[in-house]
Specification:
The protein is an alpha/beta fold. The protein has 2 domains: 140 residues, 3-Layer(aba) Sandwich (Rossmann fold); 138 residues, 3-Layer(aba) Sandwich (Rossmann fold). The strands form 2 sheets. Strands 8-7-6-9-10-11-12 form a 7-stranded parallel sheet, with helices on both faces. It has a 5-stranded parallel sheet with strand order 2-1-3-4-5. Strand 9, helix 10 and strand 10 form a beta-alpha-beta unit. Helix 5 packs across helix 7. The longest helix is centred in the C-terminal third of the chain and has 19 residues. The radius of gyration is 22 Å and the shape is elongated.
């Protein structure tokens, strides 16, 4: 009798996972597939629900996998991480258990996040989220605060990599002045990315819009705190589609409440999903969207096709795209 495996696909909030790839390829090989649509309430909740599974398909960082959770999953033999990396996944803990983790690299374009960044920036500039709510409630112009034209304004890009450079290109097309800063950015690289290199202080003090495009790391965590936000123009708009913890959440809440800055547009948060009643949801001068940067059909199809390929390779005893190869030695 052929061996069977149990696979859990996690955090399919939109209930689309099974439509995005040919899962019958795995079912024909004895893989039973279960999809979880809701986030887990705690490590204990995740450990209980995931206990029977041999394989897990993780959707980016939606469910964190610290050591405390990995060590409770005694049946777990293999994990697939969609995307290239996730700071919320303790790959060392998996390695210690001899559990290989394969990822789904490539899939290349960052257009989805860049386009979302620009849409969010424009929503903030004209208070469009509030305008839409007003229309639905029978209102008209009353209460709309932001009335900013982009042309001639300055955009400060924090992190001018592939994604930041694409956003800088959008800004140029709208007639904006673009400056940039990050720890290792050079004048030459800034010019190539469509921006002028300035200091962090100058960027914050002179920009009408600030957009963040950094990877979350020990170096970038808490990069913008209360003192940094206090340097920004009172009319400035901050947009974050990168990772929530890059900006000190308490400091940002205080800056918005005290109108130290005019508005913020957020796609990312310290803890996701955001809990009902979170203080951000009670503020009028913040536009909120639920981490949609990579949430497009193209990305899902790439992620899930890659998940199937990784699982097939592991079933064949020839795992690919393994991010913790030391685990293979322990599993052997």
């Amino acid at each position: 009798m052929p061996q069977t495996y149990k696979l859990a696909l996690l955090d399919d909030y939109q209930k689309v996972a099974l439509k995005m790839a040919d899962w019958d390829r795995l079912r024909k090989r004895g893989v039973e597939i279960t999809v979880f649509h809701e986030p887990f309430s705690s490590v204990e909740d995740a450990a209980k629900k995931l206990a029977p599974f041999d394989m897990l398909g993780l959707l980016r960082e939606r469910t964190a996998f610290p050591r405390a959770l990995i060590e409770k999953l005694l049946n777990l033999k293999f994990m697939v991480l969609t995307g290239a990396r996730a700071s919320s996944l303790d790959d060392k803990a998996a390695t210690d258990r001899g559990i290989p983790i394969s990822n789904t690299p490539g899939g290349g374009s960052n257009a989805s996040t860049a386009e979302l960044t620009w849409a969010l920036l424009m929503m903030c500039a004209r208070d469009l989220a509030k305008a839409e709510r007003l229309m639905r409630s029978g209102g008209w112009h009353d209460g709309i605060e932001q009335m900013v034209v982009l042309e001639g304004k300055r955009l400060g890009v924090i992190g001018l990599g592939r994604l930041g450079s694409r956003v800088a290109g959008y800004a140029k097309a709208f007639g904006m002045d673009v400056v940039a800063w990050s720890q290792n950015l050079t004048e030459e690289a800034a010019a190539k990315g469509g921006a002028k290199l300035v200091s962090k202080d100058e960027l914050l003090k002179t920009s009408d819009f600030v957009s963040i495009h950094l990877v979350l790391s020990d170096r970038s965590r808490g990069l913008l705190g209360a003192a940094d936000l206090a340097k920004m123009k009172k009319s400035a708009i901050l947009v974050n589609t990168s990772r929530g913890p890059i900006v000190d959440e308490a400091a940002l809440l205080a800056a918005l409440k005290n109108r130290t800055i005019a508005h913020a547009g957020l796609d990312v948060y310290d803890k996701e999903p955001v809990a009902p009643g979170h203080p951000f949801t009670k503020l009028e001068n913040v536009t909120l969207i639920p981490h949609l940067g990579y949430v497009v059909e193209d990305s899902y199809r790439h992620f899930y096709a890659g998940t199937i390929e990784d699982i097939e390779a592991w079933l064949d005893g020839k795992p690919i795209n393994v991010i913790n190869p030391e685990a293979l030695k322990k599993a052997a």
